[in-house]
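Hi support team,

I submitted a single chain yesterday and got back a structure, but I'm not sure I'm reading the token output correctly. Could someone confirm the output below corresponds to the sequence I sent? I've pasted both exactly as they appear in my results page.

Thanks,
R.
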Amino acid sequence: MKEVMNILEELVLSLFVLLASAALVWISFFIGLSVGTEAAAAFPMFLLFAPYLSSGFVPLETLPKVLRNFAEVSPFTPITETIRGLLMNDVSLNDLRVASAWLIGLLLLFVFLTLGKYNRLTEKS
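Hi R., thanks for writing in. Yes, this is the structure output for that exact sequence:
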């Protein structure tokens, strides 16, 4: 295993973290417009528990069957595995593709939902 990341690996990690951050920000925007700022402020609390429903702390094979089934389809598993792989210089291209697809999909979905919600709210005033 390499000890030092090269510039390309650092760039991929940085872009991936920016993509994840952008998706979470737009989800929070939508929640804030839909149910209020208090609910949007509480949204990050959900993220504290997300790693427990993925392979964030333990390998999927060690999870009980019900949790393992959920973790296998959860977007948090490939996202966690991708970040871990990028930091450990051992990233799976499949995890990177799946995690990027989840994040881009969530980002696009919530950008459109948020802009639509914002336009409806501003038309009424």
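A quick pointer for reading it: The mean pLDDT is 87. Let us know if anything else looks off.

Best,
Support desk
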